Amino acid sequence: MAKKEKKQFSIMIIEDEQDILLLYKDYLLSRGHKVVATSTTANEIMSDYDRIRPDVAIIDYKLPADKSGIDAAIQIIEKYPSAAILLVTAYETVTKEIAKISLFDNKRVEVLIKPLRLAQLESSIVNIVNK
């Protein structure tokens, strides 16, 4: 029986912690995905997103400068309503914060709470892209 081929995704990672950025990138590359990892701040995210146009963006909630991952997600969804975004945070309250933002209603935006398993990250990517 032929083995079912796994779909490869284009993934953009926005994370300011270099260790986490490299961990996610290395794992996802080893799983066959195309990954663009950037320590881009929320202020610069749109130019990078426009250029890359990933299947999914993984955005850390806490970013340097004056914007959060939620601010970045809002910018992306306003321009690309069908974008798939995973917000990664250690703060469980972010889930409630996201739920209050009507722009995210019926959109492909999810929150992953740290610590998370790398396999969980990949399964969340597959789920949100196929949503």
Task: Kindly describe this structure.
The protein is of the alpha/beta class and 131 residues long. It has a single domain (10-129), classed as 3-Layer(aba) Sandwich (Rossmann fold). It is 39% helix and 21% strand. It has helices at 18-30, 45-52, 69-79, 93-99, 118-129; strands at 10-14, 34-38, 56-60, 84-89, 108-113. Helix 4 (93-99) links the parallel strand 4 and strand 5. It is globular and about 35 Å long.
Strand content: 15-25%
The dominant shape is globular
Secondary structure tally, helices: 5
What structural class do the secondary elements suggest? alpha/beta
List keywords for this structure.
131 residues; alpha/beta; Rossmann fold; 5 helices
Short structural summary:
The chain has 131 residues and is an alpha/beta fold.
Topology:
Layout: E1 10-14, H1 18-30, E2 34-38, H2 45-52, E3 56-60, H3 69-79, E4 84-89, H4 93-99, E5 108-113, H5 118-129
Parallel strand pairs: 1-2, 1-3, 3-4, 4-5
